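Quick question: what would this complex look like in 3D?
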Amino acid sequence: EAQVTQNPRYLITVTGKKLTVTCSQNMNHEYMSWYRQDPGLGLRQIYYSMNVEVTDKGDVPEGYKVSRKEKRNFPLILESPSPNQTSLYFCASTPGTGRNYGYTFGSGTRLTVV
Amino acid sequence: AQSVAQPEDQVNVAEGNPLTVKCTYSVSGNPYLFWYVQYPNRGLQFLLKYITGDNLVKGSYGFEAEFNKSQTSFHLKKPSALVSDSALYFCAVRAFEGRYSTLTFGKGTMLLVSP
């Protein structure tokens, strides 16, 4: 089944403790992206990646890092999480940069930073 | 920069009645428009998209959307609402910024269908 897989689904952590949220897609998509969803703000893009070793900042990149060492994986790293990073996170992928391509989303990771 | 506006935080409709969820956009050049739905504790699911051609686009679960270039709108519609349509709906636009394209979302509209 074609899908985007995120782990974990739920995570509670303490301020300052480094964490990684994994994302993997099995569709050989070139383009991957991370979004955070907050009430009243919709989805905002954190980082995106055009291909292996090519990443760029989205609208809200502060406090996050990403890497793209393999085509299928795009982990989101929070080096020193803070409470304002409590949110619902989605990973997404799409075949390429063509505007007619939609995105396939993962099931989400609900992160709570206390 | 591109943007999407969903002017209604919530839409209430009775089952069996027609529904409309509004969306307007701003983008340089031709827009590529999408609607996604999010059910509780689930990820986003693709409903439909407008690329080019007919202004009325048909999608999943009986939904359709009407593209209006002069009003820069892409409203989501369904002739007869179901209670199971209750969910959070997002409009999105994709356009190029520099070398790359990105998908920009509206803030979402909660649709509540009452029995």
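Answer marked as accepted. The first strand of chain A starts at residue 4 and ends at 7.
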